[in-house]
Structure formats: C-alpha cells, structure tokens
Amino acid sequence: MLDLAKRVYDHSFRIDPIVRSLLDTDFYKLLMAQTILRRHPQVSATFGITNRTARVRIADEVDEGLLREQLDHARSLRLSKGEVTWLRGNVFRGQGRILGPEFVSWFENFRLPEYELATRDGQYELTFHGPWVETTMWEVPALAILNELRARSVLRGLGKLTLQVLYARAMTRVWEKIERLQRLPDLSIADFGTRRRHGFLWQDWCVQAMAEGLGEPRFLGTSNCLIAARREVEPVGTNAHELPMVYAALAPDDAALAHAPYAVLGDWQEDYAGNLRIVLPDTYGTTGFLANAPDWVADWTGIRIDSKDPIEGGEEAIRFWQDHGRDPRDKLAIFSDGLDIAEIERIHARFHGRMRIGYGWGTLLTNDFRGLMPDGRLDPISVVCKVMDANGHPTVKLSDNPTKAQGPSDEVARYRRVFGVGDQATMPVVV
Amino acid sequence: MLDLAKRVYDHSFRIDPIVRSLLDTDFYKLLMAQTILRRHPQVSATFGITNRTARVRIADEVDEGLLREQLDHARSLRLSKGEVTWLRGNVFRGQGRILGPEFVSWFENFRLPEYELATRDGQYELTFHGPWVETTMWEVPALAILNELRARSVLRGLGKLTLQVLYARAMTRVWEKIERLQRLPDLSIADFGTRRRHGFLWQDWCVQAMAEGLGEPRFLGTSNCLIAARREVEPVGTNAHELPMVYAALAPDDAALAHAPYAVLGDWQEDYAGNLRIVLPDTYGTTGFLANAPDWVADWTGIRIDSKDPIEGGEEAIRFWQDHGRDPRDKLAIFSDGLDIAEIERIHARFHGRMRIGYGWGTLLTNDFRGLMPDGRLDPISVVCKVMDANGHPTVKLSDNPTKAQGPSDEVARYRRVFGVGDQATMPVVV
After folding, report:
1. ipTM for the complex?
2. Which residue, of A306, B25, B365, B396, has the greatest Cβ tally within 10 A?
C-alpha cells in the first residue's frame, strides 16, 4: 500500500546521511572523553586520518563534495532527549552511573568541531584541531564516513539483484563464522567494528546476527552506542592508545615519560572506581610495560592484546600474572587485533581454560566483503584516525608491531630508548 | 514512517494465500486447455497427486486444515480485468493471438472445480473429478500449494536472522549457477519451476535473478504466467504428457491407441497454426515414437527430452532428424528433466553447435534448498499431479524411465505391447 506521506517526506532528504547520531560512535570514546573532560579540559590535541593501505587512493574513489556533505551533516548532530536518557541509564552492575552528570551535560551541548580537509597524492588529509575532548570525538564518525563513502562509490550502478546477491554472500559469510563460533566453549565476544564497517545498516545487521546466533552470554554486546541502545545489547569498551600517547606527549622529562602509561591507569581506576580495568599495554611495547609495571597493575581485571602476535601476547600476559602471584584463570585477556574466525579458533584452542578470554571483533566482522567485487575493490582498508599532537607536542606510538608505529623519527628514537624497546617482529597489518 | 492504513488492512488477512491469481500457473496449461476446450469439452478426467518421494510423509508435515484453506482460497480466484488483457495481448511473433476469444471468455468465467482430500499412510490423496478442461487447471496450483505449505511448516519458528541467512544461502547458490550459465555460448534457458517451487516469492526472485544475470536473449522467460506478466518477460511452454495420455485412454482399439500420440500432434499444429511445435515424444517410449512417426513430425521445430538420459535422448533426436533428411542445426532440443547446472553444462558441451538447444529449468532453479535445513527437511520432493482416467478409462504413461511409469498393470502391459517398448534403463528421479 502506498504510503504517500512517506514518499513525499523522503523526497525532502538532502543527502543519505552516514552518521545520524552522536551515539553512533564507540563507547570507549565516551569513557575516555569523560576522563579527558574531568582531568584535561584545557589540553588541545590534533587528530588526523592515515590510510595505511596506500595502494587504495581514497581521494580518487570518494568525491570530495560528498565527503564534505557527510562531515558537515555529522557536525549538525546533537544528542536527542532519548539518547541522553540512555546515556544516563548505563550503570555498573546495577549501581553507579558509568557516565556522570558533568560529562552528560557537556555532551548534551556538544557538536563535532571543525575539520580541515586537503588532498595529497590520492589521499585525504583530514585533520581536527581543538580541545582534546572535542577532537577525540571525530575519530569514529570520520572513519565510518570515509569507509562507507568508499563502499557506496564502489557499489554505485550495480543491478538490484547483483546487490542483493552481494549482501547474500556477505551474510552467509558472517553466519558461517557465527556457526563456527557456536562451537567454542565459554565464548565471550563483542562487536568492535564501528570505525571500519561497510556501513551502519550492515553493522546493525551483524550485531543482530551475533545476538541471534550466539545470544547471551556468548555475545557480550557492541562497542557502538547507538546500536547497543537500539538493539538492547550491552555497550562495551574501555580505553585506547590516545590516553598514554597524550600523557606521554605532555610529559616534561624522560622520567615523567616513562611513568606516563602507568599514570593513565592510575587516573582511570580512580575515575571508574575500579571498574573497566583492562590494561592496554602495547603503546610503547608490551614487554617493557609489563616488566616495569607496579604490582597493582596485576590487580586489574585483564589485558588487551592488540598488536603482538596473539599467542605470544597471551603467553606474556599469563607469565605476567603468574610472576605477580595472580591466578591467570581469574584474569581476562581481550584479543582485538585484526581478528577473524580462524584466528579466534587458534587463540581459543591455545588459551581456553588457562585464563578468561574475550574477543573484540572488528573489521572482519563488520566489513568482510573481501573478494566480493573484482580487484578487491570492496576489501576493507586499514585507515586510522590518530592523535598527532597534544598542546603542540607530537605524539608517538611504538606498538608491538613496527608497522603500526607513529611519530617523528627523533621522538620515536627517544621513546624507544626511554621504554627500552629493542627489535620487534614486523607483522602485516590486515585491517 | 508508520503506514497505519496498511497495518490495519494487514490485520484483516484471514490467511497468507499461496496462490493469489489464476495466472499463477504454467503457460502450457492454458495452451492445452484451449485445445481441450475446442476439441474435447465433454471429456471428463480425473487428476490426482502422487508423491514419488515416499520417505517424506507430507500429511504428517502439512496440517490438513491449512491445506484445505489454501485449496479453498484458490477456488475463490477469478481472473482480473488486467489479467484478461494480458492474456489477450500475447501473440505469435507480433501477430496472431495465442489464446483466442473463445478460450479467453471461458477462462474469464472459470473457477477451479471441487477437490477431494483424504489421507492414507502419511500421504494426501488429493483428487479432482470433472470436465478435463477444468480439472487440468488444478495441476499447478495444487502442487505449488503442497510444496509451499511443506516449506512453511519446516521453517516455522526459525529466528529472523536464521531465516535471512537461509535465503542468503539459497540466493548465493542460485547466483553461482547463473554465473556458470553466463559462460555457456548461445544459451537459451527458461524457468519451468512453478509447480515444485519453494514458494511464489522465491520463484519470482529467481526469475528476476535470471533476467538480470543472463538477460535477453539468453534468458527466454518463465512458464509462470503471473510472473511473466509482472516482470515483463515471455511466458513459455507448449504441451505435456496429459494430451497423449488422454488421447490414448480414449482410443477405441489398439490401432487407434498406436496412432494417439501422432493424433495429438496433428490437432496441435492445427490449433496453433504451425507455432509451438515442440514434440514431447516419451509418453510411450521415445524410440518407438520416433521410429513410427510420420515424416511431417520431422518438420516440427524441436523435441523435448524429458525422461531419458539427456545425452542419449539428444543423440536420438539428432539421428531422427538426420534419418529424415533434416539438418539438426536448424532444429531445437529442449531439455527439461531434473536439470541442474552441472547437467546443463554436460549437455551443452555435448550438443552445442550440433543443434539448437533450450533448457526448461525447473525444481533445481526454484527449489534448491538442498542441505539448508538438517536432515534434508527442505529438500525438494518429487510430487506430481497426473491425469488418472479419462471418461472412466484409466490413463497410462510409460515414459523412457520406468520409475516414472503410471497406470494399472494390465493396461501398462498392453501399452508396452502396442508401442513395442522393451527393456528400459531405470534412472533415479531426482526431482
């Protein structure tokens, strides 16, 4: 039956917006923003996009006008009343609001700040200058917009049935992965795929598939706040590299620099009253981080293993807890680096029963369109949005994988010295 | 946007009808009905359902009440004005109506006649008694209803995403077959899958996929009139076994019996003015039929190969044309028996360039859900609706495959003698 009102209303759309809500972002951005707002409201930080998949010339594929339209639309967004209610309603185990009133009222008035867009050598230079607490909020929507615009450009002009079969293939692929996941004992897995997703609706489908195919408690939830709210699953996440990177950039001397990663943890456990205690140890090398960690770091719930070979990283975590007299079986390792089903199975076979395991499954959950278009034109790319400087000081990341390192070379050298990072194994960055 | 009117209207549905139009049938039923109406309006005939896949107890799977509701709903259907217009508008190569005014005005007043339904040993005994021209019209809707009800019963209670993935898998499977078809030179293929389809909407999807994936002239059209009308593709079909079976049953003596299959062709070429001349030679054995055929049978456009091994049947057709001094490259062989992609490729490799080839692709186009549910519960079954008697005389079918033979054993013996049918190779009936 023709819904005349709908048809006429639809004609009034100026664009088909990719990001339609400020909640269409990862939960950990809000958690980090709350800490930034509380402790570092005056710090300014620049964020910038880097496409590590240099062979894909995004600026040739994605029209600049369309990109500006989408970014401008994202800047027009404000939280709705219902979204604020949802934010306030999230609590730790039934008590204690995760996001306090100061942060929520700041967020209620928030709009995404300005952006700068230039093109160089087939790539977009998209940068965000301003207060850290504001620029940090661009990371996820900027990446989601770029990735979805690229997919739209590749798919433009395909036939209706061809498109339907393309999605049928992608759905079948996701479901076959879920069927393999069903066989893993004591599985705990979450969607971490917002930033590199094929598109919002596709991520939303993937979350529903995980919810139906795995159910609770195996499917823990999603990092995407909007989808968590709509699908009534848990929003999940803790913190990311930008915290130690900015803390390090602001350190006045080498001693403060060496201490910076632990200072982050100290602030975090205070801000979240002992909740959300997942260590992300690899910003300046996991081995050194663990070797020099104060004993209380071993009290944290778990460790996220994000850039080292996961088997090596998992064994290292177990040794760390054992060395500190903790039982690894009480501890949680969260794997989140370029996961796909075979990798998850490999990790599970190795570690199940030896410690608690969680998976943060990103790009190859929400954007596994590999091979579904000729020449891999729909394959996901490794595009990131990272903090570049803080109060004018360049930021540095070493990671456990030199391919993911970032920063001016003299600063990288200094950080390697301060954190005692020697040779590292290079691993290809899948996504 | 909520379409209130639609929601309220939807609440008024009593059932979800499977057959929603008298055009939701195969084109050749109308062509045959026109000849029956013109030449044999007084002949009565009984049609009945047989499930050759005895291991599937349809009556245990499909509720009798639901079956009656669907059959009753089909009986309530009448042609709409637009459907009549479509029927009148079908012409041979731009001139000459395929369906004449007498038939169309009969069809405008037509309703499906009564049915008789009983259950025996886990199978439905569904029979239709009455004038041949009326009972013949039940074949396709009765089969489509049974098959779709079975699918609905198997799928009841599955989750939304599980269902979506099931269809995603089936779509991918169809599309991969179409991609293989794209590689066959001079392909000409049509959908013949109405009666054993998974469901109407699924057949409709398959036709759209064939149209988009192959296009004209490779995709010739569909046997389903309703889908042909809606999707603006050609309706295709000529005639079936029921014509020689009834002509044979009505033959007063052995001489008339031996002549019956050729009498059918004589009437047919008169009724269709030399169009639609595809011989279906296997009702009482292809070899004898061709050996005894008058020379003018070799003037017909082509032969449909429906129950013999297709390679053997194709070679036999070529020999027949050669023996009669016709060039097989001017002739058309239509393969229509249990086809699937590998079989089509095998036939094409053998005969391409040696004669014109057409494929009538049925069940494994519109109902290839094999293996998509545990225990093959969604696999297609070989259920048929055949004419059982004419004016009280039992009908007989021998076919080239004894598995498909039908009739009382004394009559079968008589027919075998009259048509000189010796030993035949038994082949499993796939679908």
Report:
1. 0.82
2. B365
